[in-house]
Amino acid sequence: MNEPLLLFDQVSLRFGGVVALNDVSFTVEPGELFAIIGPNGAGKTSIFNCLNGVYRPESGEINFCGRPLVGLKPTEIAGLGVARTFQNLGLFSNLNLVDNLMLGRHLLMKSGFVSGALWFGRARREEIEHRAGVEEIIDFLELQPYRRSPVGMLPYGIQKRIELGRALSMEPTLLLLDEPVAGMNLEETEDMARFIIEIRNDLHIAMILVEHDMHMVMDIADRVMALNFGQSLATGLPADIQSDPEVIAAYLGETA
Amino acid sequence: MSTDSGPEHAAPAAPGKGAPRLRLRPATTMHVRYRDDLRLFPNRLRRSALAALILIWAFIPVFWDVPPFTLLSGNGISLNTLAYAGVFSIAAIGLNLLTGYTGQVSLGHSVFLAVGAYSTAYAGSVWGWPMWLWIFFAPALGWLLGAAIGPFALRLRGNYLVIVTLGLVFIGEHIFRNWRSVTGGNAGTSAAGVELNLGFVDFENLSLFGKSFGKDESFFWLIWLLVAVVAWLTKNVVRTRPGRALQAVRDRDIAAEIIGIDVGIAGYKTQAFAWSAAIAALAGALYAPLQLFISPGDFTLLVSIQFIAMIILGGMGTIYGSIIGALVITALPRLIDGISADYGVPGVAAKSTDSGLVSVASLNVIIYGFLIALFLLVEHRGLAGIWVRIRNYFSTWPFSY
After folding, report:
1. Which of A175, B17, B166, B330 is most solvent-facing, going by the fewest CB within 10 Å?
2. What is the pTM of this model?
3. ipTM reported for the complex, 2 dp
């Protein structure tokens, strides 16, 4: 059997007495859309923060493409091809759409202060080359009308989409989506779901999706893991998770 | 009147002679190639405006005593004032790189100006270094100092960083007052011996087209040429990869780290600090030979605050705003001095012997404080922000909504 793309093995994370993650294990295969569900405070975002290197787990191992991630800095992990969107928007709000997406390509570009200052030569060549890559993503996510607007002034749904675009412009192999449709109306949710499916089908990028919108998760995810109080309750196909008694108990309370 | 109309009258809706005709003009320029889209001055109007501005500015030393420039030159603004404004423009661009673009407020900018000034005075007059050498020596030294101090200062954020850089001003002043062999202590040191020529170009006695120009004129050209060079280089930095990274750090540093931008010890904050210090030191290198004599009193906390005032007034996060801010902050006090001395403003004492409600010096401080407060409250993007609004109004006219 092939190596999984991501191996998350018995990871535990504590903040003082609070157990954020307790022996959580799962794997993500290349090109798979893996969803993590769970009530508020279940530890979903903590998993992302461990993956990104923002938090360092107390025990357990995280392997990405066969390389251990624990102990690496966020920038190094980004360099390995892990991209992320944020629950509460992590955009650079004073910059415009093009600059935000160009920032996603920061690690793919090279020019520094000196070559940037001189402009003619590497900096200009890079700007043109990567602008073309950015434009592909603008087309893919249908963001054409917003190129020059400071992103902080755009509607929330568009900002969420731009954040997805910034993560995509990193050309990642694993994409972490933290509640991409939180606070969106039905129409915006359907758009976002369509983009996520297109990313999986056309770009073949593996994704981990943390989401509260059960309809969307059950419709589009390949596999689902349910989490409660830092414990992994069940992992499996969406249909199996929906009928799992423990998951139902966690969401709806114990049956009488 | 005959209603029998020939074919020339067949189109009654056609406008007659002199009637207004609607001319369609695109509101913005449509680019179809990335390299056109990336130009600094994207259309012909802006390019000609820039060329005109450069031309007028270049001829200022020649025509400074001719109307309409006498409006300024007759009221206290000499070529020398404009040269100072140029020096401060360079320094303000440096501070804007750190504060406006990277979001790190520093009160220590005057220290790096001083480092550039003292090192030029020393290298130029004691070691006798030629101009092409000291003009690179000062920024290099400033860069090294900034890179050495940056990692320590930048461990802190916001108000704490301000306090640490405030400490830097006092440490700097202490060193300038006590390292007598280099700085001359409290009395200061002379930069009169600094060599001011690049090959055949002598900046103290410049001959151009058969005319001879003194230090005032040639320094104006030298300094403003360097303003243009520094502005162009810095603008390029902020519109390419490193500059975008700085702005990302300013807007949201955790997200910046997760997309791969290094904000650690050797990261972008420190690099911004170092380059900002280098630019300030270059300004200092020009300040010393311009002023001829420098002392610790020239590099106090007040000078740092002036730089902050320049970028607030001119526009945070813009390069041309730094230049406009430096011009206004440098020229305004002289203008107020000149006008109150020449015409007499009621209630203002132009000389210490005059009677009046406020002295000119206090009036300067009042106007200065008022302007900063006004801009922070009303237009926090500064004069650059006002300019952008005017430009947008006209570029979308008559449908400016």
Report:
1. B17
2. 0.89
3. 0.90
